[in-house]
Design brief:
This protein is an alpha+beta fold. It has 6 helices and 10 strands; from the N terminus they run βββαββαβββαββααα. The strands form 2 sheets. It has a 5-stranded mixed beta sheet with strand order 8-1-2-10-9. The longest helix is centred in the C-terminal third of the chain and has 9 residues. The protein is globular.
């Protein structure tokens, strides 16, 4: 309380999460920005199976195929996002990089109950951005780190995913 009888409120700044929003086909996806290592044009990325940038090697990841999305990756806005989880690195081709955004925790929503199967490993949640539904992509799944976890018993998979809240659609 202050001298005048009012409570002094100390407002803590809300922690935000940063995401790189991209478009593949008609789908908008968000990648946690902490893993983004670069964005390249098609000329910079080349057409090899791997992309080498700043001394690191990134293997090509076909997001469109993994998500069964029809995508035109030959357009002028096509980019390759270099991404690292610390354990794996990948170069993901996207039709468009929409932008880097900061999101408050209450803006991230969990997946609806209709998502009951493997897609819970693919996406960590969702949010709205510029009137578009954006699915928060689980980079560990996209880079193939969960392929061994999918063979593990369900309880072990859920336990390992709880360690990274964004992959579950909890607070960003």
């Amino acid at each position: 309380m202050s001298l005048r009888g009012r409570q002094n409120s100390t407002t803590r700044p809300l922690q935000t999460a940063s995401f790189l929003v991209v478009r593949v086909g008609l789908s908008y996806l968000a990648l946690p920005a902490t893993g983004v290592r670069g964005v390249l044009t098609s000329e910079e990325a080349g057409h090899e199976q791997t992309v080498t940038e700043a001394g690191s090697v990134y293997r090509q990841v076909d997001l469109a195929r993994q998500l069964s999305i029809v995508a035109d990756l030959s357009g002028p806005e096509m980019r390759t996002v270099l991404y690292s989880t610390g354990r794996s690195q990948g170069a993901m081709a996207v039709e468009q990089v929409v932008g880097l955004i900061d999101v408050e925790p209450n803006e991230c929503l969990p997946l609806p109950a209709q998502f009951r199967g493997d897609e819970r490993n693919w996406f960590g949640g969702m949010m709205l951005y510029q009137d578009q539904l954006v699915l928060i992509l689980n980079p560990s799944w996209a880079l193939g780190e969960l392929s061994s976890a999918e063979a593990a018993p369900r309880g072990q998979v859920e336990q390992s995913m709880r360690a990274t809240p964004v992959t579950l659609g909890e607070s960003c």
